[in-house]
Amino acid sequence: MSWCSKQNQMNNLTAMDTIVSDVMIQFVLLENWSRGCNISQTGLTDFNIVCFIKGNSNLKFADFRNFTSRLSSNIKLDLFVICDNDQIRFPWPFRADKLNRIYIKNCIIKDYLTEFKNSLIDSIPDTIKYLQIENVTIIYNVRELYDSLSKANSSLTKTAECGPENAYSIIQRRTRDIFEDIHNASHFTDFFNVLTDHSHYFNIQKRTCMYNNLEVFELSGMKNLEKSSIDKIVYTDIADNLKILNFSGNGIYNSLHKLQGWRLRFPRMEYLDFSDNNIKSLPFIRDYGRHKRD
Questions:
Q1: 111's torsion region: left (phi>0), alpha (psi -120 to 50) or beta?
Q2: β-pairing, 169-173 with 87-89?
Q3: What is d(CA 98, CA 45) in angstroms, rounded to the nearest whole number?
Q4: How many of the other CB atoms lie within 10 Å of CB of 218?
Q5: Are 32 and 51 spatial neighbours (Cβ–Cβ below 8 Å)?
Q6: 223 C-beta neighbours (distance < 10 Å), count
Q7: Distance CA 60, CA 175 (A)
């Protein structure tokens, strides 16, 4: 190896050490995060952040997003947040540059709806490849819900509607919703009218989400799963590479008829799960023949 090659290699290593050091320093500056979370390097530019939340942590996703925006462009972060039924402030769809994976379990999420119409979130790179939320309680307040509903000339952002379009796996398992102040609905004179009109405007304004990588999509164990959540992935969105579709344990009655053309909509489908629901009959599902696979 020539002297120049050795020098270049040493310079590259020095630059990489600087980048790694910068990640660690920037994370320490996140006081609420660095107190309850550990960061570790898992690859040359890959890092795991693991948080065990107990007590009043006041963990805010906005702080994490600011942290990621200051990092070198080649950094990749996997975030794991496990709570003891404690609160975190994480607005959907958890968009942060360089975030590759997010896993949230046993947490109480507040501020979930607060970015549904924030157009600035659309400008943040969509880097999430794996998203999983498990055994989570989402707490709403009436003001947040009112502001997040689809209205005339006030639609959701594409980011809020679609979530991570570049993901390989999207799993939401055993989540539930709670209102902390439903008694305040009377303060909004048109609240129930807006709530009634939400589905109408959402259907008019909805976009087709392009899940080109998506292989696993699961919404399970949700007793209050909305019909529109099933309709959208089945009828509107594009997910040609989807292999696993799981709507188990939702107490749904009449959604299987929506999948009569599933062989055309999902040519790579391998596993379809509607178990533990209230489905009493199966519709006729046409066999369109075997589809060619790569």
A1: left
A2: unpaired
A3: 11
A4: 17
A5: no
A6: 10
A7: 20
Instruction: Specify the residue for token string 């549904």.
Output: 116
The two structure tokens encoding residue 48: 């795991």
Q: Taking residues 76-91, report their average pLDDT.
A: 95
Are 151 and 116 contacting, i.e. CB atoms less than 8 angstroms apart? no
3-state secondary structure of 63: helix
Q: Tell me the whole-structure pTM to 2 decimals.
A: 0.86
Residue whose tokens read 């009043």: 56
Average pLDDT over residues 61-65: 96
Rounded-to-integer distance, Cα 155 and Cα 165, Å: 18
Residue type, 132: Q
Q: Give residues with Cβ within 8 angstroms of 106, minimum separation 6.
A: 82, 83, 84, 85, 134, 135, 136
Burial level of 3, CB count in 10 A (0-12/13-18/19+)? exposed
Residue 189: Cβ-neighbour burial (10 angstroms; 0-12, 13-18, 19+): exposed
Within 10 Å of residue 130's Cβ, how many Cβ atoms? Answer: 16
- Name the pairing type of β-strands 216-220 and 76-83: unpaired
The full length of the chain comes to 294
Model confidence over 203-251: pLDDT tens digits? 666 788 999 999 999 999 997 787 777 778 887 889 999 999 998 998 8
DSSP 23: H
In tens, the pLDDT along 9-33 reads: 444 445 567 788 899 999 999 888 9
289 exposure class (CB count in 10 Å sphere: 0-12, 13-18, 19+): exposed
What token pair was written down for 199? 């589905």
Token digits of residue 163: 């979530």
Cβ-in-10-Å burial (0-12, 13-18, 19+) of 241 comes to middle
Average pLDDT on 46-59 reads: 89
DSSP bridge partners of 238: 210
* Residue owning tokens 């890959």: 46
Greatest Cα-to-Cα distance within the chain, rounded to the nearest angstrom: 77
